[in-house]
User: Fold these one by one.
Assistant:
Number 1:
Amino acid sequence: MMSLPVVEGVIRRRVLVNFRVDAEVMRRQLPARFAPKLHAGYAVAGICLIRLEEVRPKTLPRAVGVSSENVAHRVAVRWVDDDGAAREGVYIPRRDTGSRLNHLAGGRLFPGEQHLASFAVGDDEKSIHISVRSRDSTISVEIAGRIAESLPPTSIFGTLAEASAFFEAGSLGYSVTSEAGRLDGIELATRGWRVEPLALDKVYSSYFADESKFPRGSVEFDHALIMRDVAHEWRGAPAMHV
């Protein structure tokens, strides 16, 4: 199997939009190898909207790096490796990008296959609006909100620190590929993890709104987080067969 290069760059903006989901409903959407990682009795799933800049193979200078807007739908999961070790991370049923390069290179030069999408972004670092439409008309996402001082009182996470620790632990992700039963592995390593609460006035995802997957009342918005200006690396991980 081809060894994929370590990729580095800057996370200029990363928004984590998080939902609490009925655990059994979420389990039915996962490959059998995974179990939902629960918090307060709920599965936790969400949308990662991320702007990357200066992204390039680690051996190349910053000047050749590229920028892109990207979105991934993800679920916090646990599983057991082939050697019996208990692991945790995220299962990623769908990844979309505004970059044709990312679309063409994903799963070939860089880990993770990505669909093409159109992004409209307004961000003044106090308020933010992001709208995403995939080219294949499968995925539609829209969020709008502003920086907040705390999580919503209805969140299943009692504190910002508690939420931050939960998501920082999900650095290893497995993404659906075009090859049935094979998931691409990718690991995110950040240098300086820090999140802030984001209060959302609007949140929509066609994935989580699909009542054939998530019956009415089985999924609810919980909270959103934002991080900015974080140096990072993406590292390929061995593929998983499910």
Note: The chain has a mean pLDDT of 93.
Number 2:
Amino acid sequence: MSNPVFNENMVEQTRVLEGEPMTINGAINKTFMLFVCLVAAACYTWFLAFNGFTDKAGMLTFGGAIAGLILALIIIFSRKAMHVLTPLYAVAEGFFIGGVSAVYAAQYAGIVMQAVIATFAALLSMLILYRTGLIKCTDKFRSVIFTATLSVALVYLIQIIASLFGRGIPQIFTSSAIGIGFSIVVVGIAAFNLIIDFDFIERGSQNMLEKKYEWYGAFGLMVTLIWLYLEILRLLAKLSDRR
């Protein structure tokens, strides 16, 4: 699977034995709950940043990024207490998103709202393409998206390591034509990951996974949406620099 949250064998091996099974509506409801948690936390950091509490906003942004990563790893590898951990993850990422968004908003007027609208437009577009069958989540599709996602992760990892030595990968993280092209490709890869998220939720429901996997499906969808939003924000900033 391209999304590291999901494992190809999970759907086949974790069928419910007793109690309620996972449903699509249940996963949608839990996604909405996580989204509310994320937006509330993001608004709080945003409020702090634009009302003079920059130190506190910075701490929440940095702390949210670290806590979000730790919680994500716990959820992925343990898959326990997801009804508690996934909302905590959404809150942590909300603090991070709010701080990052405030930084971009201070430099580029209106960019945050544009990124939010573009993210939801991508979500709706991918959902329509998936539901109409224009894009099918086949094994080949998963393999291609997995390879592309892994490649992007490696590029970012190399950039992080290089930056520690005062260097960086030429062009792709700038506002040059190459940098904009790279961001467009990454946004596309992130958007196609949504197809895999939809497929997990649908197949999980069909294969009667345990009820707790509604939280897991919602978590995976949130991971992709957060990544997509950040990449769109970066792309819009590059485009603004070119004007």
Note: Residues 10-241 form one domain.
